[in-house]
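Moderator note: this is an archived Q&A kept for reference. The question asked for a predicted structure of one protein chain; the sequence and the answer are reproduced below.
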Amino acid sequence: MARLSPVQASRRRPEPRTSRAQAVPARGARRRTRAQRLGSLLLALGALLLVLGGGTVAYAHLAEWQHARQTEVGPRESLPARLEAPTPGSTGPRAGPTPSRRVLAQVPIGEPVRMDIPRINVHSRVMALMPKDGEYQVPSFDVGYHADSARMGEVGNAIFNGHLETIDAGKVFARLHELVPGDAIYVYTDTHRFDWVVQEVRTVPNTDRSFLLPTTDTRITLYTCAGHFDPRTRDYTHRRVVVGKLVQVSPRA
C-alpha cells in the first residue's frame, strides 16, 4: 500500500473553522457578561449611596441630639398650641404715643432669649444676630433674632429666622410650613412671656425681602428657606414666611 506523504496527509485533514452560528453565541455571551458586570457595579454603587445617605441622616440626628443634651433652654410650660386673636375693640397691649420705635404701654422691653412653638415642637434658645455684609446669618440649631428689629415690648416687626434642613447645623424651622392661622408662638425674655398668634403663612421668592422691613404695627415674623435648592446660587429658591400678632404678655413662671 502506498504511503501518503506528509504534504498529502495535511491536505486530507480539514481545517477546523468557527461557523457563524458558533460566533454569534460567543459574542452574545460576552455581552451578557459585560451587562452582568455593569449591573453588579450599579448595585454596589446604589448600596454605597444608601449607606452614605443613611450615615448622613444619622449624623444629622446625632448632632441635634448632642446639641439638645448640651443646651439648657429652660423649663417647658404646658401651653396651648392654638390661641384666639383679640377681636377689634378688645383690650390688649396698647401702643404709646412715641412715634419712633414706640413702646407698648405697661409692657417691659426685653431681648428675646427663648422660643416655643408647640404645634411644630420647637423649644429653642434665641440667638441675637446683626447683619454681616448686608445679610443675616442663621445660627446652628437655635432660632436667630434680627437684633436690629423690634424687641419684645416695642411696636414694630420682630424678626426671627431658622434653618430648614442641614447636616450639622440643625433644622429648627423644618416644620414651619405646618403652621396655620391661630397657632401659638411663645417668645420669652428674662422676665416675661409674649404670646403671639399666627395670622398669615406665605411663600415668597428669595428675592422678596419686604417681610424684613420695619412696620408700624406690633408683629412677629418667622422665616426659613423653601422651594428647591439651586446649586448654582447655593441658595433655596423661596422663603417661607409666618406673621403673627401679639395677644398677651405675662410674667414668667
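Archived answer notes: The CA atoms of residues 28 and 34 lie 10 Å apart.
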